[in-house]
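# nightly structure sweep
# worker-07 picked up a monomer target from the shared queue
# config: single-sequence mode, recycle default, output format = structure tokens
# input follows
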Amino acid sequence: MGLRIKKGDTVTVITGKNKGKSGRVLSVSVAQGRLLIEGVNIVKKHMKPNKKYTQGGIIEKEAPVNMSNVMLLCPKCSKPTRIAAGLDSEKKARMCKKCKEVID
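# output follows
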């Protein structure tokens, strides 16, 4: 099965403690099946001082979310949708299942 969600897509969380939140995908981990979404699943991490964090302390950052817990937001109809594989002028493309609009 190919990747249905890519870096830069806007997704919404459909299950779990972050249900209803949406954001832009920052990174995709194919091997683990997880996504890093901007502003979703924020965790606090205690950091020792180092070169990157000179002062150290408690840092807030995004934690990965499982791919099965999110749905792509269609750019045209702005609704969470499943993704269909279709042809767009002899080229394979991702399509919205609700409005049949090409996403790529």
